[in-house]
Amino acid sequence: MSDAAQEPRRVRFDVTGMTCASCAAHVTKAAQGSPGVADASVNLLKNDLEVCLTPDADEAATVEAVASAVHHAGYEAAPEHPASASGQAREDAGPSPASQAASDTLRRLVASIVFCVPLFYVAMGPMFGWPLPPALEGDAAAMVRALTELLLLIPILVFDRRFFTGGIRAAAHGAPNMDTLIALGAGASTAWSVVVLYRMAAALGMGEVGLAATLGHGLYLDSAGMILTLISLGKYLEARAKGRTTDAISQLMDLTPSTARVRRDGREETVPAGSVRVGDEVVVRAGESVPVDGRVIEGAASVDESAITGEPIPAEKVVGSQVTGATVSRGGWFVMEATAVGDDTTLAGIVRLVDEATSSKAPVERVADRMSGVFVPIVMSISLMTLVVWLVLGADAGTALTHAISVLVISCPCALGLATPTAIMVGTGRGARMGILVRDAAALERAGEATDVVMDKTGTVTEGHPVVGDVITADGVGTQELLRVALALESRSEHPLARAVTAYVEDEVASGHVNEPDAAVEGFSQVEGGLSANVDGTRCLAGNARLMASAAIGLGGLAREADDLASRASTPLLFAAGGRPLGIIAVTDRVRPTAAAAFSELKALGMRTTMLTGDSEATARVVARQVGCDRVVAGVLPARKEAEVRDLGQHGKVVMVGDGINDAPALATADVGMAIGAGTDIAMGSADIVLMRSDPLDVVRAIQLSRATMRIIHQNLFWALLYNCICIPIAAGTLSGMGIDANPMIGAAAMSMSSVCVVTNALRLRGWRPNMGERDETTRTDDNDMEDMMERHLSIEGMMCAHCVAHVTEALEGVHGVTEAQVSLEDGTADVTCGPDVTDEALVSAVHEAGYEARVS
User: Fold this and answer.
1) Where are the alpha helices (H) located in 206-220, listed in sequence order?
2) What's the rounded Cα separation, in Å, for the pair 262 and 273?
């Protein structure tokens, strides 16, 4: 992985005119052939194109070249304006492309249904014995019925003309797509029916009423209308489902309040959140959202950061604390100085990460794209072969045409094209809501394939904040004397262990346990193994046993104490004054509470675990025993960490987890680098996946999310391939002799539903939860209880934003017996999975106590 400074330049385009995976393949090919483009990737769900520029490319010229190439391929591309998480940007934005597409498709669908229903009734009425107006009954009215069908079909052709215009344009550019298949199917049905109409007219001209009625049975006007209407229905359902896949980004952007209360010239005024500038003083009261990132300069509050980190317990913020935009003050009042606004906030960065991840392609998706690129020409060839074979076998033209049209409309390149991006989009969005930020789809795929997990010890397995654990004085030495010397020496050092000792002594003084040390310090210096200085005229030392030995200071019983402390994963700091030992202050970096559970879960996933650290072998092995790590590599420098990861990578795929600057090379070398959220910006920049919380269990959650996403992708690809492999031969009539057939109307319905099934299957990831071996008692159920689980549907009133969704979800899942609650802001509903003992009243009451209204529907 390259550093940020070496990242290639990328340009995003909004693309119009794409309808299926074949379109995406043709747009990709057109863009990749443009001068100055190193690579190109199309996201069919978001209708956008991302191009990677060559190092020497002129950006303006390349953008123009790409737009021109896409235009000549039959589509339109325009440079995309970057999305912003700021309130002003959201106010200026109109409806999302997904919702706009769903609305446009719904209008066309309703108009088509209005004419399709009577068309189908008139066409099929004589066959099923349905009552018809006298003017349309009997053989004598065959021509009237035919003309009525044609008149009812014409509006449908007009409403759904986009299939014809798009399909013909694509075919004219040598890039036939799904619209081409639909246009051929509906157009062939209509053209053949017009021929039949002329034959009926000729029969009537010769007085052959019976012949005209018989010929009327060969009309396919109803098939053309049903094909277009059913495809439109499928497109509408698909557009709605696709819109839900982008909910994660929309919900993230909705977290920021639209206004902020700014204090200027001693007065508070409410301004748009987008107008807040760095340095402004922003006032936040209880119940309000923090509009931008900043630092508390006055007051204190309890802040809910769950929207950003996923951590449910509010964090206490005091003067000097950093606060993040989109978090919520649950209690208290504070004034903050804005330090990051607009696109520089943490939330905006998260939105960018999720957006970039959903625009990237997993390796498995590129295989599906290649298949989609040749799918339509193959289907057209099969359709033509079907027509010819049936005619050669002696079938009449109507039968041959029916099978050929069925092949065209039943095939579905969209299912192949949507199989992977829908799952990637929903999976990365679900991860973002849990505090797991995936940078690209390839990392998400690789994480699930990993065989080894390597964790840095300090700051990852441990908390990274050393604290004083034990204070042991030598014989005849008081605690006051030991702490006086310790503060005098350690307060002048920037080492983390020194800061821990200094903080401990200051806390002891503040609590009144010891008097405030007062010492004159001269000649301070850092020496090998510790510190040295003259304190009140006496030479004093602080450090390890080797430093004491080099100064010929006998430790006596303190040596055994130091060894015992080291065996318990503590770092013993020895102190001496005037050539005699004063005592030991033991500093320990506590193991994170969830570290042992994380290593246990990783083993349950079949993964090998390794812990890397620069600490001593003894301390590292103690920590490894506490957490259950398989292998320990101690005393390593950053370069050695990278080498260890590279060596492991020769025998499997490696996930490296770290938090510091010294972890960056190893993170970049690993197949998947994960940065713990409390880490440095350099570690974050080198990582493929960012864990917003400092919780080792999030490593397990990220790997499980990867595996769940890939499982959905494989299911979708299997379904898409199986559907086409089974349905196309049936449509071609290979099983007609057994009475199994598929006419064009059935084919259109099947094709529409195949895409909907793929998208709906991906949407199951919205409700995904990690499967941990040890669960909270409130959510634990045994296998027998799961058999009795029930589904309840509630209508919720009063929800206005993503925070409201979080509150309702928390309230419902807090009800004893509820295992899961899926809350939709868009639909104003909640789907609750619970035991049979949970009453409707309990659910409604829980929502009411959270400040909203609910009713069971």
Assistant:
1) 209-216
2) 9
Radius of gyration for the alpha carbons in the chain, expressed in angstroms and rounded: 35
Residue with tokens 């057209």, as numbered in its chain? 380
* Residue 360, pLDDT score: 63
Question: Shortest CA distance to 432 belongs to which of 709, 796, 778?
Answer: 709
Residue 119 to residues 83, 200, 231, Cα–Cα distance (Å):
45, 19, 16
**Residue 639, C-beta contacts closer than 8 angstroms, at least 6 positions apart:** 665
Angle at 137 between CA 135 and CA 142, to 5 degrees: 90
Name 788's Cβ contacts closer than 8 Å, sequence gap at least 6: 835, 836
Question: What is the edge-to-edge ordering of all strands in the sheet holding 790-797?
Answer: 818-824, 829-834, 790-797, 853-856
Q: Enter the pTM of the model.
A: 0.65
Q: What is the secondary structure of 749-768 as a DSSP string?
A: HHHHHHHHHHHHHHHGGGG-
Local structure of 5: helix, strand or coil? helix
Q: Looking at residue 781, what is its pLDDT?
A: 37
Return d(Cα 755, Cα 825) in angstroms, integer. Answer: 25
DSSP string, 435-482: TEEES-HHHHHHHHH--EEEEEIIIIIB-S--EEEEEEEPTT--HHHH
pLDDT of 354: 67
* Structure-token pair, residue 400: 């041959």
- Assign 95 to helix, strand or coil: coil
Print burial letters for 245-256: b (CB count within 10 Å at least 16), e (below 16). Answer: bbbbbbbbbbbb
Q: Is 456 a catalytic residue?
A: yes
Distance (Å, whole) CA 596 – CA 73? 56
Neighbours of 372 (CB within 10 A): 27
Quote the pLDDT of residue 575: 95
Residue from 480, 566, 540 nearest 516 by CA: 480
Per-residue pLDDT at 779:
34
Compute how many other C-beta atoms are within 10 angstroms of the C-beta atom of residue 204: 17
Q: Is 36:413 a contact under the CB 8 Å cutoff?
A: no
Could you give the CA distance from residue 24 to residue 22 in angstroms, rounded to a whole number?
5
Closest-CA residue to 688 (of 647, 637, 636, 653): 653
| Residue among 373, 357, 374 nearest 436 (CA) | 357
Strands (E), 377-416: none
Write out the H or E segment, with its range, that includes residue 262: strand 259-264
Output phi, psi for 470, to 5 deg: -135, 145
Residue 358 CB coordination number (10 Å): 27
736: number of Cβ within 10 Å? 15
Give the amino acid at 520.
A
Residue ranges, the chain, pLDDT below 70:
1-7, 45, 81-99, 238, 241-253, 307, 309-313, 354-362, 365-369, 372-373, 615-616, 637-639, 660-662, 677-686, 773-789, 801-803
Helix (H, G, I), strand (E, B) or coil at 630: coil
* 608-612 β-sheet, strand order: 436-438, 689-691, 672-676, 654-658, 452-456, 608-612, 631-633
Dist CA 378 CA 465 (whole Å): 63
Long-range contacts of 719-727 (CB under 8 A, 24+ apart): 719/415, 719/419, 719/754, 719/757, 719/758, 719/761, 720/368, 720/412, 720/415, 720/416, 720/419, 720/754, 720/758, 721/416, 723/412, 723/415, 723/750, 723/754, 724/411, 724/412, 724/415, 724/416, 727/410, 727/411
d(CA 724, CA 751): 9
Please pick, among 456, 589, 671, 698, the residue that the annotation labels catalytic.
456
SS3 of 98-143: the string is HHHHHHHHHHHHHHHHHHHHHHHHHHHHHHHCCCCCHHHCCHHHHH
> How many CB atoms are located within 10 Å of the residue 129 CB?
7
Q: CA–CA separation, 475 vs 302, rounded Å? A: 46
Which amino acid would we find at residue 53? Answer: L
Q: Tell me if 651 sits within 8 A of 629, measured CB to CB.
A: no
* 3-class DSSP assignment, residue 239: helix
